[in-house]
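New to this. Explain the following:
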Amino acid sequence: MNIPEDYLEAYQRIGAEFGVPWNILAGVGEQESSHGEAENSPSTTHGTNTKGAAGPMQIGIDISQDAGNSWSYPPHDYGSTKYPEDDFETFWDNPGARHDEPGMWYPIAADGDGDGYMDVCNKDDAIKGATGYLIYLGVQEDARHALQSYNSGPKPLTEGHVTYSYADSVIEHAERYADGDFEVVTKDGDDPEDSFGSSSDRVSCSEASTSSVSMGDLSVEPQDFEVSDLINEPRGECAVAGSSVNPQSIRPLACEANKVIYDRFSEGISTVHGDRCPTDDGGRHPQGLAMDYMINGGGEMPSSEQRAHGDEIANWVMVNHEQLGVRYIIWYKKIWEISRYGGPVEWESWKNYTRGSDVTTHHYDHVHVSFEGNTVSNPCG
């Protein structure tokens, strides 16, 4: 087992300060993200997992999801929270609170490194927040039950959990750490500040999830078209760029706009889906007015690189919505609508997309683009 030097220091310092064994905290960090290094967990640095959790300790920042804990309030703060200018009451204002006692539950956002910010993607802040949550769950009275509650949600000790597999895995990690069965490592040479989560030059969840694409005009137009000429034209056969299923029956506007989008982003798109009949989703696919840009094979959370591709596609299409005739975009469980915003806005300001139940319906694996146009009562007839 390896543990980054800066993480080890944070576990030991914060654990000693609040009376929680450091190896227990390290066990949680190992289980949740391999101390921020898990390659299959991009949500350690930006966005959330499918349960709405983020950061190296995987703490819930989207309370509309299934994560049992809550980093901050308001619920859509997404990561870095300024303190004390945007001050709000947290667990640390009432550290005697326990989950099995009546009363209000407080968010667990914490400033673990004293830099004035509470950032779920910063290792010190996240570890302190996780420590508070474990205390709230009763880790000092029954560590195994508290650890399982960290994963499954608070449950009275008298009732117990159906399974303690998560807790037992964390305890196994913790015992190995206590026995000294691990190696201390650094990244990029011997400077631990180069490791993920250093306070001197870190990227917060909210910053990392913002696309860096510049807001420019369309620069690639393989085929000129005017939105006004195509907006209400009936559907017809289209050789859909980027799809192996052709021809497809979609509207001319979607056909032409897709050529522009795919020409620009083909390297970051796995495949393109357009036509969907019979009506099966209540959206604009059956109308021939929507395209899905898959950034992987589908059904799995994107890698960091794939997430960056999706960010770039969604942002660029939003910026150029007028030239493309775009009505709305759904990406990574958020939706932008021209009728709502009137123009481009930062991704963090997009409205939460509340439909769906899995990776695909939450739009984690593809960017959905819907185009302007009238609807018909029987689009697939």
Notes: The first strand starts at residue 2 and ends at 4. The chain has two domains: 2-208, 227-371. Residues 304-319 form the longest helix (16 residues).
